[in-house]
Amino acid sequence: MASAPIPLKVSLPPANRGIPPPPAQTTVKQVTFGSVKTTAGHRIAIYAPGGWGKTSLAVRAPGPVAMIDLDDSLPVLWPQFEALGITDNIKPVAGVVTWTDLLSTLNASGWDGIKTVVIDTLTKAEELCAAEVLRSVPHEKGGRVEHIEDYGFGKGFSHIYDTFLPLLAAVDRHCREGRNVVLICHECSATFPNPMGQDYLRYEPRLQSPNSGKASLRLRVREFVDHLLFGAYDIAIDKDGKGIGNGSRTLYPREMPYCMAKSRTMSEPMSYNDNAEEIWSRILGK
């Protein structure tokens, strides 16, 4: 006599298969919605050839302007600023000589009432950062090194990059508190790797940027700022192929074949002569 078949037990898959249930007795976090803080300051980087007027433009930003003069340009420019009647707008920041000085100053109290912070220049700040790395970061095998290259291939660049990032965090804090921050850079020419054709030269900020793209402060600053503005002298080519110019200057707010640039508020180049107030109004979207 055949035995009765044994019934199979079939378990239905849970409705949320693939999504693990929350642990028992765990409160599920609820999303929080906030408002947009329109009082935050702008993060602005300006780079241009020497003598173009980067510092003169920066100190005419909405003030009072706190000036961290790493390049020691104020003693030379001060008579010009006195003649322009703008010295009351400028508050020189004292005691910044080393990388540690720079970070501690930016993170200090006492910034109330300041509307714009200027670092002149970020290129010099990178040099201070490199000196701090050599002073404080030992070789992986022990002992100090004398040159960034002595850390080994690419490792010195990484040390500088990691040491530099707290400065951007300090800048971000000032902007969240409502202050604009202007980062002045020197310029350089760099080969742009063009995936659509031949590589070409263009102007970029003079900041660390290894060919590998890793540990590139230049690219990190471009990502970080709201505006990366390139200042150039206007040059034309005559019939003999020679460059000629009359000293006129232009500020470029967007990427061009010859320069790295971006802006959240400006779309067209602006001539720069005695119109600093108009330029800042355009940059700040006012």
UniProtKB/TrEMBL annotation:
This is AAA domain-containing protein. InterPro entries: P-loop_NTPase. It comes from the Bacteria.
